[in-house]
Amino acid sequence: MRESSEDMFLSQDYPGPSSQASQASVSSRRTRSSTIKDSQIMSSQDMETQKEMQLISSIIRYLFMADRNKLPIQKSHIIKHILDGNSKVFRSIIESVNIQLSQVFGYSLVEIEGNKYILVNEIENDLPHLTFNDNHKLVLLYLVLVHIFMYGESCKEEILWDFLQNLGIITDDNFQHEYFGDIKQLVTVDFVNQRYLEKVIKNKNDPMDFEFTWGSRAKNELTYRSALQFVADIYDCPIKKWKLQYKTVQDEEENARE
């Protein structure tokens, strides 16, 4: 007996209306579940990004506040005060901080001595980037740095005192100046602590046998060319007149290009 076309049609394994509705419902639930999971993942990522940006902003605020006294900023202090002691994230977060400092503020965070940092102005102009709240200190510092460079990039303490004495800034028995203040304190303590100057010990057995050189902050905020140009402007001469110093300028600029 042959089946009718209707029987043949009904005998095929096709889903009926109720089955199709059930499948649609399951598919809809799966889609909603997938959407919720994707939303949760995106929300979690957004929260992590927001948390990282808050950390970056907090570190930048801390750096600008800590830089006011021009003392190097301790890595351990950043970890303690901003990162709640979590040193594992320091390296990655500080790279992001440096990018923001450069792109937004025009500053660079320079690492010195392995575990300390200084802020350096990246914006190029014709003026040295030495920065002080007290302009009196800035003038004295600039004179000292220029003299050290012109003397051969380093000089003994007594040579520096002779220079300042010839300028009438100090006398044999008086390091106080009405405009600059305590010269000896500024040069031997403040400028050294701020890394504008460095004391280089020449004799390990004699801590008093040392010379002053430019410190890491001075090297980042000032150039040999600007120091030599300052002298050349005073004497109204081309900088090439000082052959030894000019050669030092060229060497510095060549090293910077490499």
UniProtKB/TrEMBL annotation:
InterPro entries: MAGE, MAGE_WH1, MAGE_WH2, MHD_dom. Residues 1-49 are annotated as: Disordered. Residues 36-47 have a biased composition (Polar residues). Residues 18-28 have a biased composition (Low complexity). Residues 52-249 form the MAGE domain. It comes from the Eukaryota. One of its GO terms (cellular component) is nucleus. SMART domains: MAGE. PANTHER family: MELANOMA-ASSOCIATED ANTIGEN MAGE ANTIGEN (PTHR11736), NSE3 HOMOLOG, SMC5-SMC6 COMPLEX COMPONENT (PTHR11736:SF14). This is Melanoma-associated antigen G1. It comes from Trachymyrmex cornetzi. The lineage of its organism: Eukaryota, Metazoa, Ecdysozoa, Arthropoda, Hexapoda.
